[in-house]
């Protein structure tokens, strides 16, 4: 009788894991151990008697420039922008809504034919876009067939 109990116990299945544990799929590879992965952890500098990093070293990450050097000398004063400080490009953009878009075309000519301050270029580009959209609107408005 003890032989029957031993044979019955050896044929029993192992108990099922408790609810909520995921055992994985049979054809999925087992997870890798930490020693297989890359990159390997590195001990902190100076742990094994290594020399200390240079004084300009920034230990919180990589930097393209190792040291930030402030500019020395007299600060550069830039001239004021015309038209109440907003620049001629933005002035033309605003006035173009009241004067049928003509200042937009003047601003485009100024952008193409002269050197403009980099601070004023966004206003000139806005005039260029507005002039292009106004041209498209005029073309479609004039070619519309009235029935």
Can you give the helix content as a percent range?
25-40%
Rounded mean pLDDT score: 75
Structural class label: mainly alpha
Q: What characterizes the major β-sheet?
A: none
Overall morphology? flat
Alpha carbon gap, first and last residue: 108 Å
- SSE string, helices as H and strands as E: HHHH
Uncertain spans: none
Number of helices: 4
**Range of strand content:** under 5%
Strand tally:
0
Q: What's the quaternary structure here? A: single chain
Query: Gyration radius, to the nearest Å?
Result: 38 Å
Could you characterize what this model shows?
35% of the residues lie in helices and 0% in strands. It has 147 residues and is mostly helical. Helix 2 runs parallel beside helix 4 (121-142) and helix 3 (102-113) packs across helix 4. The radius of gyration is 38 Å and the shape is flat.
Name the features.
147 residues, 4 helices, 0% strand, single chain, mainly alpha
In a few lines, what is going on in this structure?
The protein has 147 residues and is an all-alpha fold.
Secondary-structure map:
Layout: H1 2-10, H2 88-96, H3 102-113, H4 121-142
Helix pairs in contact: 2-3, 2-4, 3-4
